[in-house]
Amino acid sequence: MNLxxxxxxxxxxxxxxxxxxxxxxxxxxxxxxxxxWTEAATPMQVKxxxxxxxxxxxxxxxPALTGIATVLTxxxxxxxxxxxxxxxxxxxxxxxxxxxxxRRKLEIQGTVTCVVLLVLAALVAWxxxxxxxx
Length: 134
Prior knowledge:
By secondary structure, this protein is mostly helical. The protein has one domain. 78% of the residues lie in helices and 0% in strands. It has helices spanning 2-25, 28-31, 43-66, 72-93, 100-129. Helix 1 (2-25) crosses helix 5 (100-129), helix 3 (43-66) packs antiparallel against helix 4 and helix 4 (72-93) packs antiparallel against helix 5. The chain is globular, with a radius of gyration of 16 Å.
């Protein structure tokens, strides 16, 4: 199980690290092409979410690799669970699109993605707080 947790941690760190860097470095208008939800957010909100995702991605692997402050790993996973709950809420509220069918498709895709990432982050938090802590 420890190996599974490491694989999930690295996968989540890569996903959130990449998305976090994109949100921090790209203008909101460019992000809107692939992340429709950014239309309803301010540029500062997008940057803040990006910073939190990047820090959580780093927190998933760095403390565990170094053996320093290893409690930060499950806390980072718990933070991602909270971010994904917010993501689910945003996607369920919907994004503005030209057609109702396109809107529903985007809502479903975004919600499912957030749910999957939430479950994976919750698995890491459970494993690293509990039976497979460092």
